[in-house]
Amino acid sequence: MSTANVLRSDGRTADELRALTIVYESLDRVDGSARFGFGPTQSLTSVSGPIEIRPNLESPSQATLDIQIRPLASVPGTDSKALATTLKSILTPALLLSHHPRTLVQIVGQALCGTGSGSGTGSVGRGWNASLIASLVNASVAALMNATSVPMKGIVCAVAVGLVRSASGGVLVLDPSESELAHLTGGGCFAFLFSATLPSTPTDSTDIPPCSLLWTNYTSTSPFDERELSDARTLAEKGAREVWKALKESVGRMEAPLKASDDRKASTVEDIHAASRDTDIHEEDDVKMEV
After folding, report:
1. Reduced to 3 DSSP states, what percent helix, strand and coil does the chain have, rounded to the nearest 5?
2. How many domains in the chain?
3. Rounded to the nearest 5 degrees, what angle is found at the Cα of 36, between the Cα atoms of 137 and 234?
4. Does residue 233 fall inside a structural domain?
C-alpha cells in the first residue's frame, strides 16, 4: 500500500502524526494521572495502587489489575467495558504485577472528546475509534510513569492507521483525524511494547529500545491482504516511535515540578533549622543574663 507524501485535509503528510499533548494533571486521591492527546482526540487517565483489595478478589501471586473506561457522556456501556478488557490485555505484559501480590492496581480512563462516530460518546454498538483507543493506551502509560508505584518492564505506545481508497489504489495514513473517519475503508489501532529486554535487530535505533507488536484490531472492508497489514504495521511502528520519544521527553517536564517542590522543602527545612539555632542562641543569652 502507498504511503506517499500526499497532503491531507489538515495539511499533514500520510505518515505524520497530529500534535501530541502530554500533561501530568496531579489529580487528588490518586497516585498518578496524565492527559494524552493526538490533536483534539484526548483522554485523561488516573492510576491508584498498589492498594488494599477485598479478600475475595485478591490474587496470591500478583496484583489484581482493574481498568475502567468512561465515555465523554452517559454511563459506561458494553463498548466501554469491552475496551477496558482490551486495555487490560495490552497493559498487563508491560507491568510487573508479581511484585505486589494481594493488592489492587486500578486504572480509570476518561474520554475527553466524543462525536457521532463513536469516539467516546458511549453509544452502544458504535465502538471507539482507533485514535481514541491509542490515546487511552498512551494516557494510561503516562499515568503509570507519573505514579512510579507500579514497576514496569517496558513502555507501551499506541497509534492508529487508516486506509483511504482511491481510483489509483489505496493510501495508508497515520493517526486519522475525525474528519477522515468517514473516508476510511480500513484501519485500526496498533500497540507496541518498547523494552530493553526484547531482542534487538540490526535496523533498531541505538537511542530507542527494541519493540514488538502487542495488539492490533486492524480491519478492512476488502478481502484480507497480508501486504496491507504488513505496511500498516510498518507505518504504525514509525508513529509509535514518535510517541515513545514524546513520552521520554515528557519525563523531564514531570520531574521539574518535583525538583522545585523538593527545593522548597529543603529551603523550609533549612529555615526551621536556622530558626532552631536562633532559638538556642537566645536561650543561651538568657541563661548568661540570669547568671
Report:
1. 35, 25, 35
2. 1
3. 55
4. yes
Burial of 166 (0-12, 13-18, 19+ CB in 10 A): exposed
Pairing assessment for the beta strands 64-70 and 104-111 based on DSSP bridges: parallel
Q: Give the CATH number, domain containing residue 97.
A: 3.30.230.70
Task: Flag whether 15 is in a domain.
Answer: no
Looking at residue 188, its pLDDT comes to 95
Contact 48, 30 (CB under 8 A): yes
Domain span including residue 167: 20-290
Does 167 map to a domain?
yes
What's 1's DSSP letter? -
Contact 164, 250 (CB under 8 A): no
DSSP 85-126: HHHHHHHGGGB-GGGSTT-EEEEEEEE----TTSSSS--TTT
Kindly report, residue by residue over 24-56, the tens digit of the pLDDT: 998 999 999 999 999 999 999 999 999 999 999
Q: Which of 110, 94, 133, 113 is nearest to 46 (CA)?
A: 110
- Pull the grid cell for residue 276: 532552631
Residue 227 is which amino acid?
A: R
Which residue, chain included where needed, has cell 483534539?
Answer: 40
**Residue 6 domain flag:** no
Contact 75, 122 (CB under 8 A): yes
- Identify the segments of the chain with pLDDT beneath 70: 1-6, 115-127, 167-168, 255-291
Q: What pLDDT score does 67 carry?
A: 98
Cα 120 to Cα 110: distance, rounded to the nearest angstrom: 9
pLDDT for 141-179, tens place per residue? 999 999 999 999 999 999 999 999 776 678 999 999 988
| Total-model pTM | 0.85
pLDDT the model gives residue 271: 53
